[in-house]
Amino acid sequence: MPTRAIPSTTGALARLADALAARLSGRYVERVWHLEGGALLLKDSGPGGERLLIAPQRALPRLSLTREWPPTPAAPDRTALLFRKALEGARVRAVEPWMDRGMTITLTRGPDALTLAVQLAGRFPNAAVLLGPDDTPTALLHEGRPARDPDARPFAPGPDPWPELADDVWLDRWDATLRGAAERARLERRGNELARHVRAFGKRLDRKRQAFEHELARAESADRHRHHGELLKAALRDIPKGADRVRLRDWAREDGGETEVPLDPRLSPVENMQRHFHLYRKLSGGRERAEGFVLEVLETQAAVEALRGDVDAFDPDAALDDVPAADAALEALERRLRALGWRPPVQAPPRGRADDAPALPYREFRAVDGTPILVGRGARDNDRLTFQVARGQDVWLHARDCPGSHVVLRRAGRGDPSPEALLDAALLAAWHSKLRGETVIDVMWTERKHVRKPRGAGPGLVTVADTRNIAVRADPERLQRLYASLDDAREPATGDRITARTP
Prior knowledge:
Layout: H1 12-24, E1 29-35, E2 39-44, E3 51-55, E4 62-66, H2 78-87, E5 91-98, E6 102-109, E7 112-119, E8 126-131, E9 136-140, H3 167-219, H4 222-234, E10 245-249, E11 258-262, H5 269-312, H6 316-319, H7 323-339, E12 362-366, E13 372-376, H8 379-389, E14 395-399, E15 407-409, H9 419-431, E16 441-447, E17 451-452, E18 463-464, E19 468-474, H10 476-484, E20 498-501
Antiparallel strand pairs: 1-2, 2-3, 3-4, 5-6, 6-7, 7-8, 8-9, 10-11, 12-13, 13-15, 14-15, 14-16, 16-19, 17-18, 19-20
């Protein structure tokens, strides 16, 4: 993005540059905020209370003078600090369009001159503070993107839509138009996301129904097993040992013919008879259960289809007439989906750590009672955590029969750990395993002193004695609380409910 703007004499972008120059020239930049979603908000020293909003996004680039106050972070991040250092206290000297692709704002601070270049088009819309004749960027809004894009497509905002309006009224109309477009895009994204959740939940219900129908089909064979058992019972002396099938006279048949009965050659005739009767009792008991589940799923599917129709009928254009009502309607639709059994998908916890954080082999969580819970970061880190960090009386946990992180629950004395703290640690052991996403996950736990490293075993492989078991299910509230307790947490995890129970 060059510091020297190429003026455009026609179009809405030129009118925007002229109106901004008339309003901002001679004013100082008093404050800069870096907003969520990658936008800048600049407060100038003028009496009107307007703020310059810079949002160079590919989907909906926005540059306007606004009186709205978007949510601002409680503490500035690195990007905000860089732009504050470069811009705060600088005076606006000129505002010019740049090749129908963006805008350049020239500022001075004492003898120094700088340019705030805003590119609104191309593959990498961005904003940068440029200094000196070589256009050295001192602050970039989107790190990792180039500060200039020679292949940028023209922004092409079109002709001036309101040439008859005065600059002040024109700026207000421009901001209102862009704000309405942003609201529409937000509502459309929210509606599309809800529609995706409804479709995914419907597919999950269909798979669930098919599974229950398969179980019901198996249950239909219960009467056959009972009949086979009766035939075996009447002919036990005639059945040879080691046979895998036998043909027996079946008096229940109209023709009085024979029926072939399958056998397990490893079992005796009596045991084969008992096996068929056992299968009859097992399958006949599951028939009523499977029928009930199939009926329940079919009713839920009908409700989901009705909900899908309501979600598909949501119109973001009509919703702009009453945005709060539209948000309330979308929330009501999501509540209906939750009432049918849907839960938000679990998102992977944030990775990475602060550059100045120590390279520990674990991440430290806090249980509900404040007890530290240490979770290994990898296979070699698991070994370091278990055999170098953990103490003999600490509680050691791991997902049963599955690769996963070693988890250590600190214990001050020899008493049993708090039940809630143990459930928190078991939940983390289940979450940090290959079984994540399963309905029920078994987690074994014991004291660290019962864990041994076999000679020659690979990283993370151990042998464990004297274990007990906890069955774990998904609980987003508990998981979110645990991730909020991380020393290096940037955002809490959300997702399916995870609960734990002891057998």
